[in-house]
Amino acid sequence: MTLEIDEDPSFQRKEWIAQRFGIGVMALLVLAAVLGFTGRGGPFSHGEVDDPSRTLRVEYERFVRRGAPNTVTLHLRSVKPGSRSFWLSAEYLRKVDVESVEPDPEVSVAEGDRYVYTIRTNGSEATVTVRTRPTSAGWIDVDVGMVDGPSVHFRQTSLF
Amino acid sequence: MDTVLRSVAVYLFLLIVFRISGKRSLSQITTFDFILLLIISEATQNALVGDDYSITTTMIVVVSLVLLELFFSELEIRWKAFGRVAESLPVVVVEHGRLLESRARQEGVSLSDILAAGREHHGLERLDQFKYAILERHGGISVVPAERAG
Description:
The structure holds 2 protein chains of 2 kinds.
Chain A: H1 9-35, E1 46-50, E2 56-61, E3 63-65, E4 70-76, E5 82-89, H2 90-95, E6 96-102, E7 107-111, E8 114-121, E9 126-134, E10 138-146, E11 151-159
Parallel strand pairs in A: 3-11
Antiparallel strand pairs in A: 1-2, 2-4, 4-9, 5-8, 5-10, 6-9, 7-8, 10-11
Chain B: H1 2-21, H2 31-49, H3 55-78, H4 80-87, E1 91-95, E2 98-99, H5 101-107, H6 111-122, E3 130-135, E4 141-145
Antiparallel strand pairs in B: 1-2, 1-3, 3-4
């Protein structure tokens, strides 16, 4: 009497090989995530850009996720106490939802191809945190600048 | 990176909680267990993904959890002591037709559970027809029937 079983060793071997390959792919995905290539922390996720006059420095996440929050931090230097205005390009804002700007802007106005935010500052340096949520996947070109001052450009990769 | 760390933390937390709650906790899903499972999954969802609705996050969470599971099974195979700690050991609860009451109580197994396992797999009618009933590591009860006379 033989065992009535639907066994196929050659198919089974192929299945094991496919499983090993799949585990390898999954491990690579987790490694990429740990290193920061999928955003939200990790050594390769942090980006920073400084304008030559060192008046404006922007910290951002190189990789962001569609529908997930991320933070762009603007460091405005050598600002006089009082009101200070900075702008974000309209093209950038078409691809992300701005969830919050901190400190709360006194005024935010649309001006040509950019949005201008005015905040109150009380010292020579000010840090502004812009929390956004990308609405699409792909590359997002970001232009940020100070009104009557320098501007910087950087690119974020938005993943699905 | 944050997503992977969250997945690892939630996996380890759930592993410890279910390990402490005993083998029988989720082996046979009762209505209450089902509700508990729904609440646990709702609660852990926030810790895993927060307000992040991206497919990337979902993929990383799922893959991290699956790889952790594979990694832990590999550890259990290679290192027996780890298997004991993570997955416990089988426990004999019936020996030669006699219920080992303190063990059964300790593991939260009732006589009716044991009799049901005997009926399901071997058509056993009474406890004296059992040689052994064993609460396995996965929480199920396996039964070895007594050899029938004649």
